[in-house]
Amino acid sequence: MTDQNLPELLEQAADRTPVGPAPIAGIVTGATRVRRRRAALTMVGAAAAAIVGGAVVFAVPDGPSNPQPLVATPEPDPTPAGMRLAGLGHAAVAVPQTWSTNVFRCGVPMEDTVIVDIGAALDCNQPRPEGVDSVTVDQGDGKPWRFTVDDVIQIGGVPAERQATTCHLDERVRICAGTVYIPSMDVAFRAESSTKTAVDRILDRIQIFPDQVGVPGEYRAKTKEEYVEALSAAGLTAEIRTEQTTASAPGYVLEVSPVPGTMLQPGDAVTVTVSA
Amino acid sequence: MGGAEGFSEYVEVRWPRLVRSAVLLGCTPAEAEDLVQTALTRCFVHWRKVERANDRDAYVHRILLNTFNSSRRRRSTGELPTASLPETVSADETQAVDLADAVTRSLDQLGNDQRTVVVLRYYAHLSEQQMASVLGVPAGTVKSRLSRALKALADDPNLAELRGTT
């Protein structure tokens, strides 16, 4: 143990920690907010405007470690390997392929999952398990509950509102959450995780896909007609199958395939299973 | 804003090392990422000042340490009860005994001041002069802390076997 081999030992110990890509966008958003707040406090309006303007066009260099540009780009980046898209309308977020869709209990995610438009969920005080990452996508509900606009960002040239990521303790589990709301599409993405960095990283992966559209959700409460209408509003077509069941009154949607949130080309067919 | 590009380049390059520095200081990997993000956010607020400071590394590490120390302070007074207490120490000890664990354990034996100087000097590779400015203490104090830390590490039984192999 001398100071010759100490750097080497520290290096080896440190290398054991896997480190994700730097959340530059999150840092810039956070700093912009602080600057703006301070500028407002000191009444230096002009300085604040300059900073705000600078931050919006600030580009994150492209590269494997930075799948998301902050700058307005008409063409979305290709989805990184090992990721899949989940979204509604033309907005989608890339999540790891290992994430499930709509695995929740009483509206609370039970594993790493995407929750697509489940509508109202029964609140049964289900505690959130530790270490679960999730993103909830909703469309057509207006601004999310208790949403505050902390920053205005551009996603693929579309203005979006960002609620800052904050953390709290819920039943002794630390939950950090942040929200992006796209007013022109009325789509909201709310990411939750145990760390701020993870939340910002998820929300950085939201993109706009002008040529694709997400399969609508909230089908369980809908009749065949209502869901088919939602499909055609999204530009998709329906392929109806009926199934004899006692679990549901006739005429209601039992299942849709592919799962809600899947991004399809307009005109593609969605198989809708309806109770008979 | 020219500063923004400089900043994103800087973060791109330094992010992994800063996060790992925080882990060596005693954070869990998740805590470390949040800590570094908070510190870098503070740095970016004053990025022009940081660039003017002529020594970005020293400045960034000072902010990182301040952020780290204030997070610890809050925890020790119990104002923010952390539910799961994900302290690195116990997590590491359940893993197989290997070199990295021995290093982490021996760092855990050091006091906060000594641990900090070891990480800054031998992992962040700051000079003694830079460390003096980061820690806000005279260079002589940095030297004496370092030599005491090295002595403590040399006497640490956790690293005894490593001494034989190197």
How would you characterize the overall build of this protein?
- Chain A contains five helices and 17 strands.
- Helix content of chain A is 22%, strand content 32%.
- Among the domains of chain A are: 126 residues, 3-Layer(aba) Sandwich (Protein Transport Mog1p, Chain A), CATH 3.40.1000; 63 residues, Trypsin Inhibitor V, Chain A, CATH 3.30.10.
- Chain A is α+β, with helices and mostly antiparallel strands and 276 residues long.
- In chain A, a hairpin with a 4-residue loop joins strand 10 and strand 11.
- In chain A, helix 2 packs antiparallel against helix 3.
- In chain A, the strands form five sheets. Chain A has a seven-stranded mixed β-sheet with strand order 3-6-7-11-10-9-8, covered by helices on one side. A three-stranded antiparallel β-sheet of chain A has the order 1-2-12, with no helix packed on it.
- Chain B starts with a helix and ends with a helix.
- With 166 residues, chain B is an all-alpha fold.
- Chain B is built from ten helices and no strands.
- In chain B, helix 1 runs antiparallel to helix 2 and helix 7 packs across helix 9.
- Helix content of chain B is 76%, strand content 0%.
- The radius of gyration of chain B is 17 Å and the shape is globular.
- Chain B has two domains: 81 residues, Rna Polymerase Sigma Factor, Chain: A; 79 residues, Arc Repressor Mutant, subunit A.
- Chains A and B meet through helix 1, helix 2, helix 3 and helix 4 of A and helix 1, helix 2, helix 6, helix 7 and helix 9 of B.
- Chain A: This is PASTA domain-containing protein.
- Chain A: Keywords: Membrane, Transmembrane, Transmembrane helix.
